[in-house]
Amino acid sequence: MKRIGILLLTMFLISAAVGSDEIDIIKSFWMKDLKPVEAGRFIEPGVCGQCHDEIYEMWDGTMHSNAFNDPLFRAATKLFVSKSVHPGEREDAEHCVACHNPVAYRSGAIKGSSGDYANVDDVTSRALSCDVCHTIDEIVFTKNASFNMSPGNGENEPGIKRGPRSDAEPMFHEAEYSAIHTSSEICGTCHNVTHLWYMTKLEGTYDEWYHSPYNSPDPTKVVTCQDCHMRQSPGNPSTGMTERPDYPGRSAMMGEERPHIYRHSVSGANTFVPGLLGHPDRAEAAVERLKNAAILEIPLHEESGKRVSAVTIRVRNEGAGHMLPTGVTEFRQMWLEITVTDRSGRSLYTSGGILDDGSLAPETCVFQTIFGDPSGNPTINVTEAARMLSDYRIPPKGWVDETFRFGKELEKPLTVQAKLRYRSMAPSLVNALIGEGHDVPVILMTETKKTIE
Question: pTM higher than 0.90 for the full model?
Answer without folding.
Answer: yes
